[in-house]
Design goal:
Layout lengths: L9 E6 L9 H4 L9 H12 E12 L8 H13 E8 L12 E8 L5 E6 L18 H7 L8 E5 L26 H25 L1
Length: 211
């Protein structure tokens, strides 16, 4: 990374780096933040090769937002302090066939520190897979809301000053998502009503005995 000159930098980086790999120590020596995680090394590289004001969209495991190892914490700190991480798109499982993990897309701009992060949780009414891939229609709401960083049932914002300044944990839970209430089966409801009727009858009989 030390050899990268201004002429080597880019205005835009769009990437889906390999994750889950384990890099050797001699490879790690080329990076300020030492880690065996391939995707974390790539992320450092992307930040380095961006020009000031350059923009990036990077797919990464969602665990990057909360991993507690020193390298992940240091990398989140670097990202927040050196770039404006303005958007995190939380993708559903199965978006990338064969990945076996959930992923997020980090959208950031190099050159100014992050003040607020806007999250969007992509919730679909179907399972994704080879024959049922993510498409542009699935992202219509995300694209529209992202223009103004609006809040909705699927989107929310957090202020960097409010996160833990020792871990820089970004695994914010959606505060706007309504909890799903499990609906009872009709047979269960009728059974409960019958039990209540029997209990009420027993209580009335007890009262009559007292009269």
């Amino acid at each position: 990374l030390a050899d990268i000159q201004e002429k080597d930098r880019y205005d835009v980086v769009l990437a889906n780096p390999p994750f889950g790999g384990k890099e050797r120590a001699e490879v790690q020596q080329n990076f300020p933040i030492k880690t065996g995680e391939t995707a974390s090394l790539f992320l450092q590289h992307f930040i380095k090769i961006l020009k000031a004001g350059g923009k990036a969209g990077v797919v990464i495991k969602n665990t990057f937002l909360s991993n507690t190892d020193n390298a992940s914490i240091a990398l989140r700190k670097q990202l927040l302090e050196n770039c404006n991480l303005h958007t995190v798109l939380d993708l559903p499982g199965g978006t990338f066939t064969g990945a076996g993990v959930k992923t997020v897309v980090l959208f950031f701009e190099k050159g100014s520190a992050t003040q607020n992060v806007w999250f969007y949780q992509l919730n679909l009414d179907r399972n994704l897979g080879k024959t049922n891939a993510l498409n542009e229609k699935d992202l219509v709401e995300f694209v529209e809301l992202q223009k103004t960083k609006a809040e909705s049932e699927n989107s929310w914002s957090i202020a960097v000053k409010d996160i833990d300044q020792t871990t820089f944990d970004l695994s914010a839970k959606n505060p706007n998502k309504k909890e799903e209430v499990a609906l009872r089966q009709p047979a269960d409801i009728l059974e409960a009503m019958k039990a209540l009727d029997e209990e009420s009858a027993a209580i009335l009989d007890s009262i009559l005995d007292l009269l």
